[in-house]
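Quick start: load a record and inspect it. Here is Twitching motility protein PilT:
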Amino acid sequence: MRYLLDTNIFIQARNLHYGFDFCPAFWEWLIAQNAAGVVGRIDKVSDELVAGGDDLADWAKARGDAFFLPPDDPVVPALGRVSAWANGQTYERAAIATFLQVADYWLVSHALAHRCTVVTHEVPAETVRKIKIPNACIGLTVPCISPYEMLRRERARFVLAQAKSP
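Running the structure step on this input writes:
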C-alpha cells in the first residue's frame, strides 16, 4: 500500500504532535517508510514546504528529489479526470480555480493515477467555497484517511529507548 501525504501532515506534525525537537522518531519513520516504498509525497507538496523557509523547509530540501514524486505519464489523464470532476460539481468558480492551482489537485490526481491512499488532516465539508481533499477523493473514489489511521494501519511505534542501568 502506498500513501501520499498532504502538506498539512508535515506542518501539523512539526507544529503540534511530532516536533523535530521531541519526536524525531516520527521523522525517521517517514524516511524509512519512504525508502520502503510505503509513504510518499509529490513534488508540489515539497514546493509548499520549501516555500515556508523554516526548519521544515530545510528538512524537505535535505530529503532530495527522490523523496518527492514528480508527475509522470499516468498522472496526465488523471489531472483531466480530477479537473472534470471539480468543474462538474456545484463549487463556486473561485473555489474551482483555486483548487486547480494548488498541490491538492496534483495530490488527488497522483493518487488517482497510481491507486494511492491520500493522507490528510482535512475532513469533508459541505461548502461551495472550497474544494476539500476528502470531498474530491470521495467523488473520485480515491481512498483518503487521517495520519493517525495510517500510523495505526502501518503499526508505527515511537517507543522511548530503555535507560541503561548503572
